[in-house]
Please model this.
Amino acid sequence: PVPDDPPVMFRWRKQVFRIEHADGPERIAPEWWHDGLGLGLGDNEQDEAADDTGSDGTDITQAATNASIQDKIRDYYRVEDRRGRRFWVYREGVYRPGAQPHWYVHGVFG
Model:
């Protein structure tokens, strides 16, 4: 399995569920036209913030915005285990150096 694949198994409520079938992902991400930091900066303030650079010349605001957006990305999957039980699971965040995404059970299909 690669990082973009659904889980092959997961542990939930002290039980292990082995996945047989999965549909997805369906990606939910913040709107690209928002600043990603949730600061609600106006145009003038954004222009000033964009001038912030680190000692190595990197744009601190842009790096923080990219990391913040990546942490808010959710990939949803509909999965079914070997006994036919169906779950709605999602991965929050993306795989990148220094940060691992987290998996959650969002719901159970009846």
Summary: The two ends are 28 Å apart (CA to CA). Residues 60-72 form the longest helix (13 residues). The first strand starts at residue 9 and ends at 12.
